TrEMBL record:
Residues 89-213 form the GST C-terminal domain. It comes from Advenella mandrilli. SUPFAM superfamilies: GST C-terminal domain-like (SSF47616), Thioredoxin-like (SSF52833). This is Glutathione S-transferase family protein. Residues 1-82 form the GST N-terminal domain. It holds the Pfam family GST_N_3. Homodimer.
Length: 213
């Protein structure tokens, strides 16, 4: 059985839980208390991931760290071939990878501010990251606006979402908790509703399903 070392409040853990739910893939969650317990810094966890970060996925002895890498692995091994991660079209593979990298930028801006405010109760010196986050959201907004005009409704053109959508989704959805409103990004709000409409969608604290929002 798949084992996911997980923190309920982590966006990066959530995107993996979300994909496992969408896939209907059986798995077990192994909670890792980040704060205040700092379990991720303990020797027993560092033996699993020396970088002291969650999520970590274990599959029959294979240990994978980094949420984006885990999404790609799950898509290639447990999803119908090419459905969530393109395997043959070079340009589409590159676009998916581009947005997976973009998710890292969202994590280092939006989610970094969210953690600083919620975990440490401090909001000083976050203005540069908030400015960078709004610039990233503007890039996504423009991209999705033109995509919709062209009849495409996901980050990468096609009739089905990819792991790129799941990778970016939680950071965008939790931007309010970083003090960054989505009110000025209507195309992004429509996109987040489409992600919520994916069969198997599951919620996390701060992210609700369409029926409960």
């Amino acid at each position: 059985m798949l084992s996911l070392y997980d923190c309920e409040f982590s966006e990066n853990c959530y995107k993996v839980r979300l994909f496992l739910s969408i896939l209907g893939q059986e798995h077990q969650l192994i909670p890792v208390e980040l704060f205040p317990g700092r379990e991720h810094q303990q020797a027993h966890f560092r033996a699993i991931n020396p970088l002291a970060k969650v999520p970590v996925l274990e599959d029959n002895g294979l240990i994978l760290r980094d949420s984006q890498a885990i999404l790609v692995y799950l898509a290639c091994k447990y999803a119908p071939k090419g459905k969530w991660y393109p395997l043959e079209e070079a340009s589409r593979i590159a676009r998916v990878q581009m947005w997976l990298s973009f998710a890292n930028d969202l994590n280092e801006t939006i989610s970094s501010v969210r953690r600083q405010v919620q975990v440490f109760g401090k909001d000083e010196n976050v203005a540069p990251k908030c400015k960078a986050a709004r610039e990233l959201l503007a890039v996504m907004e423009e991209h999705m606006w033109f995509a919709e005009k062209a009849g495409h409704f996901w980050l990468c053109a096609g009739d089905h979402p990819t792991v790129a959508d799941l990778a970016c989704f939680p950071h965008v959805m939790l931007s309010d908790e970083a003090g960054i409103s989505l009110i000025d990004y209507p195309a992004l709000r429509r996109w987040t509703d489409r992600v919520k409409g994916i069969n198997g969608f599951t919620a996390m604290p701060g992210i609700f399903s369409l029926t409960s929002s």
